[in-house]
Design goal:
single chain; 428 residues; alpha+beta; 5 domains; 4-stranded mixed beta sheet; 16 helices; 15% strand; elongated
Length: 428
């Protein structure tokens, strides 16, 4: 039996069946009808320790994912029971279950990071499951998580000093509704959409018409597990140092520079934590030239540019050509073809694309920093076949010179190129 065979959708609130009641009663008995009672004789041990120490997986012949699901059902419905009688609940609460990625960081002679996945309804349970494995997972089986990856530089296993917990995917239907605030112009756009369908003979099954509005800067937050998470503190310091930098630009830097590890290079996070005591600003300023610092300072502006490929600098154009505007994966970009196909299907000509990140040179040309697939797909909208080609002689359209491509609208966060800011400062 697997989780997919028994997991409920969140809207399925009918009373528990006999199997569900039996498992929930056993969890109730094992935990004494409580939740995370840290004042009990178990000390600071969480529910995971009590359940696993009593070998509930073996007793009930459950796998780890099913146990985590039933534990979530137990927590969400305990308050509606009398003496653990789960069969008396007329309308049960089914939590939104997710698969989490849990990263464990250890301060060893150099650095160690381990990544596991776990099924849970919230990040606390996901962290507790890995906590149990760290302490007892090698002595008591089965485990509660699935091991995904290790990153080890040197040293032996040591105390865990931090964890990150991130959602990988939802496992059952969510009933959570999210309210958003839209502007008057966005409301007008929605009204236009509705009028279009009301007065036209468009068939939604055959005709394509893009409805809805683009929300400004929809970004995800930095993943947080503990209140004292150094990642959270580091990002907050960056936010205070660069208050005018768009969230999109700052998070792109954080994820792709601070959190990423280039092969053969020392992890940036390790330098910040160990060399600079958790202060990212000296690291960002670097060896004194301050390129990344000036980059983040900007100033940044959200603009809709009117461009064709030749409006970009030689370095960017060369990359466009080497990649044949997304037809060739010249740089071994992960999932390059799929990502390009996605952007080709999402591209638009009204300048309301998800913004890309661009630096502007003194001569007016642009250097593309982030958003290559989006930019190439939109630029290709300006590629028109030459007028003098004969379709009886050629199977494909004859391409135009890049300089002759039509201009297209491209929304971007734009800032001055720090390369030239530095040179101008030194020469003045």
């Amino acid at each position: 039996m697997e989780l997919k065979d028994i997991i409920r959708n969140t809207t399925d609130t009918q009373p528990f069946n006999k199997f569900e009641v039996a498992v929930l009663r056993e969890i109730y008995r094992t935990l004494g009808g409580k939740i995370k009672n840290r004042n009990s004789q178990s000390g600071d041990r969480t529910d995971m320790y009590l359940l696993m120490d009593n070998d509930i997986i073996g007793n009930l012949a459950l796998d780890k994912d099913i146990l985590m699901y039933f534990y979530s059902l137990y927590k969400n419905n305990l308050h509606n029971t009398i003496d653990g009688n789960f069969s008396s609940i007329d309308e049960v609460v089914v939590p939104q279950m997710k698969e989490y990625e849990v990263k464990m960081y250890q301060n060893v002679n150099s650095w160690r990071e381990a990544t596991n996945s776990v099924v849970a309804s919230d990040s606390d349970d996901a962290g507790d499951a890995l906590d149990w494995e760290i302490d007892y997972g090698n002595m008591v089986n089965p485990e509660l998580t699935t091991h995904l990856d290790d990153f080890i530089e040197q040293g032996d296993y040591d105390d865990v000093f931090d964890m990150d917990v991130n959602v990988i995917r939802n496992l059952n239907e969510s009933i959570t509704k999210r309210k958003i605030i839209i502007t008057e112009s966005q409301l007008s756009k929605i009204e236009e959409d509705l009028k279009y369908w009301n007065v036209s003979d468009a068939n939604p099954n055959k005709n394509k018409y893009e409805m809805g509005v683009e929300l400004e800067e929809e970004v995800t937050s930095i993943p947080i597990y503990k209140d004292n998470n150094p990642h959270k503190r580091i990002y907050e310091k960056m936010r205070r140092e660069f208050p005018d930098t768009p969230e999109y630009v700052l998070q792109d830097y954080y994820r792709n520079i601070i959190l990423m590890r280039a092969p053969g290079h020392r992890p940036a996070m390790k330098d910040i934590l160990n060399t600079y005591n958790g202060d990212p600003i000296p690291y960002i300023k670097g060896d004194g030239n301050g390129w990344w610092y000036n980059y983040l300072k900007g100033p940044w502006k959200l603009q809709v540019l009117n461009v064709n490929p030749m409006d970009f600098d030689k370095r960017t154009v060369r990359a466009f050509e080497q990649r044949d505007f997304g037809n060739i994966n010249a740089y071994n970009v992960p999932n390059d073809e799929e990502r390009m196909d996605t952007q080709m299907s999402m591209r638009r000509d009204d300048g309301m694309n998800e913004p890309v990140i661009i630096l502007q040179n003194p001569d007016g040309t642009y250097q593309l920093i982030e958003g290559w697939h989006r930019t190439m797909s939109i630029l290709k909208m300006g590629d028109k076949p030459t007028e003098d080609y004969d379709d009886e002689l050629w199977d494909e359209e004859s391409p135009t010179e890049l300089k002759d491509w039509d201009k297209v609208k491209l929304r971007a966060f734009v800032a001055p190129n720090p390369d030239f800011i530095k040179k101008e400062t030194q020469s003045s």
